[in-house]
Amino acid sequence: MLAFADPDLDNGPRTEKSATLRMCAVSREVRPVDELIRFVVSPTGEVMADVKRKLPGRGMWISASRQVVAEAVRRHQFGRAFKREVRVAPSLAADTEALLARSAVEALAIAAKAGQVISGFSKVEAALQIRQGRNAIAALIHAADGAADGIRKLDAVARQNPAIYGESEEIPTLMALTSAELDLALGRSNVVHAALLAGPASRTFLSRSQILVRYRSADDDRTAGTAARNSNSK
Fold first, then answer.
1. What is the value of pTM for the model shown?
2. Which of 62, 66, 109, 110 is the most buried (most CB within 10 A)?
3. Alpha-helix runs per DSSP H in the chain
């Protein structure tokens, strides 16, 4: 339900856990929470992204788009929404992207500790041959800076095998993290290719990596473009 006393802010992370839709404070569009980022004010008065949606205090929601976050900074949207003097770093849009990437790295590390990640070209290629069961592939991961040839070869194998989520679906492919970030998450060097096995931890990584990709690329799609145009017209 979206009948808020203050449509720009929620009442805290614990009071609205079940909310599936929120209003972007910039575009005024109601969107699924997975397409938005929550911002809060720290005890020292600094605006920061709450990428895990757990930080205390009232929260302001903005479309998961670097351009829209930058627009909110430019238009002094945070002070108006929180109705107080706040400090907003000029680099907030870039800082938010860094937090999203760090969150994805942390989630991948947890998935690896849970035994839900396979890394290395040969191991991933072999795992892609398994069509079902506990070791079926839930997603294929390539380093964003990986060589095109290896990516192309594994993608071809993946297309020949359905995803665990449905016999007719292709295996999702993610290129949100660099090789250095994959190294950090998996505790080894020169990781270019990896695969996620089905499980709760892998689903968390999928969710976090997808919002990171959206944040970087949303400005190219029509929805984000409309949001930015609407904010410019206010």
1. 0.83
2. 62
3. 66-74, 77-82, 92-113, 121-127, 148-159, 179-186, 200-217, 222-232
